[in-house]
Amino acid sequence: MGGFLGELGKRLAERWLSLLVLPGVLYLAVAAAARVLGQRDPFAVHRLTAQVTEWAKAPAATTLGGQVVLLAAVLLGAAAVGLWAQALGSFVERAVLAAGWRSLPRPLRRPVAARVEWRRRRWSAARERYHGARNAAARALATRTPFDHSERHVAHHAMTRIAQERPERPTWSGDRLHAVALRLDRDLRLDLAVVWPVLWFHVPQETRGEVTAGREAVSAAAALGGWAVPYGLLAWWWWPAAVVAAVMAVTARKRLRLALEAYAQTVEAVTRLHAGALAQQLGIEHTGVLPPEAGAALSSHLRGGAAPD
Question: In Å, how far from its chain's centre is CA 170?
């Protein structure tokens, strides 16, 4: 038990250092540089070097006690900034996924609903173009006439850039996860929100590790977006910080989309591969791939409905 607790403490310390302290120390260093350089001459490295040298010669930095106090203050400040950025990252994640946008107050809900409707119109138009191109390709194949299939691929890409399924949320990222639930309900009549918590305990440890890694990648990308806010605030003293914040925000958006795509694919694959075995373990007999009838019975059973015969 002592070895386990020691290893756990070591891992927690490593995560605390890598997720909070190190990024926080970097931010404090940039903030100090921004305060020294200012707006008029933002790249005056010689002035920054002179100021750092002056700080190093200060009495508090030359004694052991002063160095300990300074180090502790820096670590605490870095951790505080890191916690702030992590909280902002959680807010960014919730805002991007927008799962509960319908419960927003009416003044906030109206513009979000308007955006959802706008995305639906765009998706419907793109879907019509894709189906037109697909039908034209089918007719060309039936009549054995030459046809440029790139138009069909371009139309499909334009549709999926808006959403995989009919938009129900104001963002692509939110709709990407929602599309998994829609497809599983349509194909297997599975209620993902009900089935997933039980399925999680049924799948092997290795599979849970893959899902956890995907979820952590989503959180890490959102946390990068959270860091863009503190760096953006430094632009009040040092305008290049706005460029840094913009690069962070763009990078976070790209990483978040890639991470959500991978995570959504993983969740859907795990559900399709293991839901059948879960149904059989709970007494819902079927053969082969999980049929929609068994999927509906599994969802009903896990909601607290009648137990399977």
Answer: 15
CA distance 309 to 307: 6
Which residues, other chains included, contact 288 with Cβ-Cβ below 8 Å and sequence gap of 6+? none
From first to last of its 309 residues, the chain has per-residue pLDDT tens of: 455 444 434 454 455 555 567 888 888 888 888 888 877 887 777 777 777 677 666 665 566 666 677 677 777 888 888 888 889 999 999 999 988 888 888 888 999 999 999 999 999 999 999 888 888 878 777 777 776 667 878 888 899 999 999 999 999 999 999 999 999 999 999 999 999 999 999 999 999 999 999 999 999 999 999 999 999 999 998 899 999 999 999 999 999 999 999 999 999 999 999 999 999 999 888 887 888 999 999 999 998 865 444
Residue whose pair of structure tokens reads 């079927």 in the numeric block: 286
Query: Largest Cα–Cα distance of the chain, in whole Å?
Result: 89
Q: How many Cα atoms sit within 13 Å of 256 on the Cβ side? A: 27
Cα distance between residue 40 and residue 95, in whole Å: 36
∠ CA 58-60-62, nearest 5°, is: 75
Buried b (16+ CB within 10 A) or exposed e, 263-284: bbebbbebbbebbbebbeeeeb
Ordered alpha helix ranges (H), the chain? 2-16, 22-37, 45-56, 59-62, 64-97, 106-143, 150-162, 172-188, 192-202, 205-233, 240-281, 292-302
What CA–CA distance (Å, rounded) separates 155 from 126?
7
The four Cα atoms 199, 204, 209, 214 give a dihedral, to 10 degrees, of: -40
Q: Are 95 and 174 in contact (CB under 8 A)?
A: no
Tokens standing for residue 265? 């694919």
Distance CA 170, CA 119 (A): 7
Residue 248, Cα to own-chain centre: how many angstroms?
14
